[in-house]
Amino acid sequence: MGLFKNILKHHKTSRGLTGLGGGRWGKVPQPPQWYSSSTQLCGIYPFSAGTSRPNVGTPLGRDMNVNTAVCGDMKTWYDAGLISSPSMMLFGLNGNGKSTAALRFMYAMAARGIIPAAFDPIKNEYGDAIEAMGGNRFRFGPGQPDRINPLDLGSLGDAAAEIGGDIGDQLYSLAIDKAVDAVVLFTQINRGSGMPLSDIEETILEELVKVVIRTVKEPWLPDLLEAFDHLPQDVLEISGCATAVAFRLEFRVLRQSLQALVRGRMGALLGGRKSVVIPLGNPGGFCFDTSSIPESNSKLLSAAMLGTWNIGFSAMDAHWELAEFERLKALEAAAAGDFYEPKVRWGSYFAIQDEFWYPMRACEGIIDRADRVGRTNRGVGVSELKITHSPKDFLSLPNAKDRETAKGFAQRCGMLGLMALTLDDLDALSAVQPLNAKEISTVAGFNVPPSWAQQPTTDGSPMAPPGAGKILLKVPGRVGIAVQMSLTPIENAKHVTDARSRVTTIGESLVS
């Protein structure tokens, strides 16, 4: 009887109650886990727990330390007050997923109505995606259809004419300033570092550009040569030369530089009277594809990159001004009891500048002017992602002033994205944006393989590098978050950057 009572008696343990009917488990099983939103999981309470990491914005993957979900991008974190600027600089060695991360941001932000703008040099990694979303793709380079006319005032000029008044005048002046910067940049790039433009040469170019834009209906580069040969009196006075003959003798090298832009290799890029026109408001965005220009042709590629920055960011500013103009017209109509449908509505932009540091190496003293060409009004909702390989890209610039200016790009970014980098890279970056020892060792270890015996993929494709998809999100003043990004099957199928490596010859085999 006593034994029977003891069996019926219940005692609390970590595995449940002992005794008959107590339900104690001999082994505690590991329950399955799922990641989901709080809306979907609310009915399974209390067996759910929230993530301890940021969970607003683009779904990225899992925290590599605590295995919780991580979400975020420069736009949502800025709107939530987590970062000071809607911008990121992304560093990483080749083949570890920089462009894949950029596409993930682009897809997620486009789904929220943020228009993508991809400035795509060297490799065609964004053009297909932009076209699939209904965006516009512009191709530059040998044999390609599109041209850049640096004297075309583009979207800013069109907006100035449409809006008129004081704002129109301001936009017109801004468009001319952009044209001047573009012509000076192209001239300096084509000359190279060995022959920098003097202050007076820049001044002469500026005045020539302004004269041509004011007096020619559809100006293009050959009109600069025409103005040079038939010199306006204003330009002659600024030059300090007594006669036009003396001017042409004094500035003959400058004329040769302009001639090279029109007739040299640059002519295939800059020699058109018509420049590309970006339709404003297309939710699919736009992409500048310069992949047909070989990387070895550094002058042409740098000019194409800087030229497209000028066109693209000017279009964003024009879009904002036109949308504000149309919004005010709609408000005025409503106040009068009428209805007016705006022709253009504002949509925030996400700008991707891949291989960001490439054109900065074209010649000394270029970085300040390049920044002006590729700058828009940060206050009008433009989020930015600048991508490059290594912090050494800007720390190795030959000009000391350029190096200091370049450091400011990384310092002003709201967040850094660090994919696989070397210890030297991380030490160099830490001098600009401080990293602790744990963060440095984490990023340096991204590319360390787990073992020499790598398992083949199910489809026979090459294995991804050990660091593929691993990224440390670093916000100044906060501990970095190491994330392993996870891709959907569609992303895996669509984004292939090593297509040539995956091609095999039928019938060939290796014999040992």
Describe it for me?
The chain has 512 residues and is of the alpha/beta class. It is 42% helix and 12% strand. The protein has 20 helices and 13 strands. Helix 6 packs parallel to helix 14. The radius of gyration is 29 Å and the shape is elongated. The C terminus is likely disordered.
Biggest β-sheet description: 11 strands, mixed
Helix content: 40-55%
Q: Estimate what percentage of residues fall within beta strands.
A: 5-15%
Structural class call reads: alpha/beta
List the total number of helices. 20
Would you summarize the structure shown here?
This protein is an alpha/beta fold. It has helices spanning 2-8, 38-41, 74-79, 98-111, 127-132, 154-163, 165-191, 199-215, 221-229, 233-239, 244-250, 252-263, 267-270, 298-335, 367-373, 392-395, 400-412, 423-430, 437-444, 489-494, and strands spanning 12-13, 16-17, 59-63, 69-71, 87-91, 115-121, 136-139, 286-290, 349-353, 382-388, 415-418, 470-474, 481-485.
Key terms for this structure?
512 residues, alpha/beta, two-stranded antiparallel ribbon, 42% helix, disordered C terminus
Topology:
Elements: H1 2-8, E1 12-13, E2 16-17, H2 38-41, E3 59-63, E4 69-71, H3 74-79, E5 87-91, H4 98-111, E6 115-121, H5 127-132, E7 136-139, H6 154-163, H7 165-191, H8 199-215, H9 221-229, H10 233-239, H11 244-250, H12 252-263, H13 267-270, E8 286-290, H14 298-335, E9 349-353, H15 367-373, E10 382-388, H16 392-395, H17 400-412, E11 415-418, H18 423-430, H19 437-444, E12 470-474, E13 481-485, H20 489-494
Helix pairs in contact: 6-7, 6-14, 7-8, 7-12, 7-14, 7-15, 8-9, 8-10, 9-12
